[in-house]
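Bug #77: duplicate submission created two jobs. Keeping one. Sequence:
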Amino acid sequence: MDPSSAETRQRIDWPAVALTVVTVCVLTFILAPIAITMLVSFNKGSYIVFPPEGLSLRWYKAFFDDYWWIMVFKNSLLIALPTMAVSTTVGVLAALGYMKRTFRGRNVINLIIMMPFLVPGIIIGICLLMFAHRIGLSNTYAIVIAGHSLWATPTVFLLVQAVLSGYDFEIEDAARDLGAGPIKTFFLITLPCIRTGVLTAMIFSFITSFGEFSIALFLTAPATMTLPVQIWNSLKYEVSPIVSAVSTIMIVITLAAIAVGAKFAGVKTLSER
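Kept job's structure:
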């Protein structure tokens, strides 16, 4: 036996090899359905088949020419943008209050804010549906935005809380000593220091709302229907490649939102959050 080959085999880091294989398998398992969906969206035929029968933009044209699909797309944006604003505002203020003050029942407040993560979205949707009926907000954008904000706020709270864990609140005290009021201190001192975390939170709250299905299924009406709900309805009655085209558009928008965050906050910052 060649001594060099035996020595090479002894130097192989088998745990590292196993970890690499497992990582590749997991990434393939996650990314393969996305890649297949995107390829099927360019299918020339009239049915969802893989591999595609030919490449064409037929189903993207069908999407942009269809009034109903464009309407639900606009609805998704009209709901996701206010949701981003509401959940970011509430989540940032809640994280500031939680991290800045020490008081009795602090952990209870944290549990209450995180409660939507512990309750299935279907339960939240049913409860909000009954509540909306009682207060006269059924079938409105407002109740959908409220439901999505309830779902997205814990994400904002966690992300901003992580940023504030390394923030020195004594800077605010120094600003107050120099005559700055609470609002001026927040916008000139606090917000610039935590802006990357806030931007990351805004991106994730937008993505959360834009792709949310279980709550929107109960709260939307035909006039306020979102893309995920329309995709679900479409799949119940037909299996058209236009669904793949819509899914691809949603994926691209999600990736674009992440790219914007990576541009302004930095890839390393986003990954750390």
